[in-house]
Structures are given as structure tokens and as C-alpha cells.
Fold this protein.
Amino acid sequence: MTSYLITGANGQLGHDLQTALDGQEVTALGRADLDVTDLDAVRAAVAGHDVIINASAYTKVDDAESNEDLAYAVNALGPQNLAIAAAEIGAKLVTVSTDYVFDGSATAPYAEDTPRGAISAYGRTKGEGERLALEAHPDGTYIVRTAWLYGAGGPNFAKTMVKLAAGRDTVSVVDDQRGQPTWTGDLAAQIVAMLDSDAPAGIYHGTNSGETTWFGFAQAIFAEAGLNPARVLPTTSAEFVRPAPRPSYSVLGHDAWTAAGLTPMRDWREALAEAAAAGAITP
């Protein structure tokens, strides 16, 4: 039986990965169990496993602007350490990355081989994690970029919207950033399908299909929660200035799945309906 190690197992994706691998031999380690920045500790944790799925990350996008060294340690050195350890024992490594490795200036979906060009500290550190992992273990590293994640196992935009609705008549949400809301349940299943197939190592875009804005996503969340979508009001990024710049266009292309003989993930609206029915957007 294949032996799996999940790092960052306590996050929302980590929870759904454990569900997707139910019945398999899985070691699930949270941040308190494994410091991915410690190569010796990583080597010890990786030993005896066939597949490592790295869902650990420094995800505080705004805080990373003033703590880039810390973000780099987790987001860049962490994947490098896992790749080094995986290469030493011939294991596969899946490390989860982000749309933030791109600058957001595109007008058509980003292809998997588009050169990186991050505009934030978070994006830069995640991009370095990709580069270092692929460099350390080129034949066994799978980079899965995702975006706009929500799931039952952690705080996220969907839960925040439902929570805000309980205390406000209206909520204002930016309508000038486009992307792909992605359910962690679908992403976890897609990663497992990739590992179960003969998909080659390399870069894949793990986002639900279709696209919308945060405003459109919020309206859909309200509708699924039985709330009036008209309570969501559109606004602009200029009204919500934050320390880290956000990509205005984060739609990712899915050609690598097709090339590998796999079906890209379903439309985000279908995923949201199932996620809502499963309680994944309930605060």
C-alpha cells in the first residue's frame, strides 16, 4: 500500500486531503508536529513514505509584506527541504502553490508555463518554493497552483461572508478582481486522482473551472446560504487598500490536466452548491 505524508494537515486543504485518502496509509502532520524549515526534521518525517503532499504555507498575505523572511522560510525553504528529502528516498512530492506567483496583468487564463512575476512578498516566496522544489527534485515534484480556496476545515471568504450577513444589512465586495473560487474538497480529490494516474511531474493548475469576481462569488455564496444576493454590493479595490497588492486577474488555464489524460476540475458554481450542501460554508 502506498504510504502518504501530509504536511500542513490541520488546514482546510489538509483536512480534505485526509478525507480523500481515507482507507490509505496516511501520516498527517500539522505545524506543531513538523517544522518544514528544519531539514533534519523533514528528513525524519519523510522517511518511509512514498508520497509527500505539502499543504503547509505562510498564508498571511498582508503580514508577509513586513515578514518576508519568515514567509520565505515556510513557503520557499519548506518545499525545498521536502523536495530534497523526497529525492533522497525516491518519493513523489506534491507542493501546493498559488495564483499569486503571477502579476495579474493577463487578460486570458495563465498557462502552466507562463513565467512567474509576483507583485507581493507572499507571491514571491511561493514562487521561490516552486523553483527550489523543482530544482531539488525535478523528476518527482508536482506543483499544484490553486486560488480562492474555501472549505469546511478552516476560515475562508465564504464563511466570512455568511458570518457578516448575520450582523449587517449589506456587505461591500470588490468587483474588479477576477479568479476561480475553488473548493478544497474538489482540489483534494484532484490531487489524489493525479497521484493515482500516470501524470508526469510538473506544474498543474488546481482551480475549479469558470471565473467570477469576489463580488460574484459573494452573491453566489449568499444564494447558496438562502440569503438575498442583492445584499451584496459591488465596490473597487481602491476602496479596500491593503498592504499587499492583489492580482487583478487570477484565472488559471488547465491544459496540463488534459495533456496528462485527466479531466480538469468542474465549474466553480457546481462545486459551491455541493460544498454548501455539505456544510462547508457554514461559519
In short: Residues 34 and 41 are 7 Å apart (CA to CA).
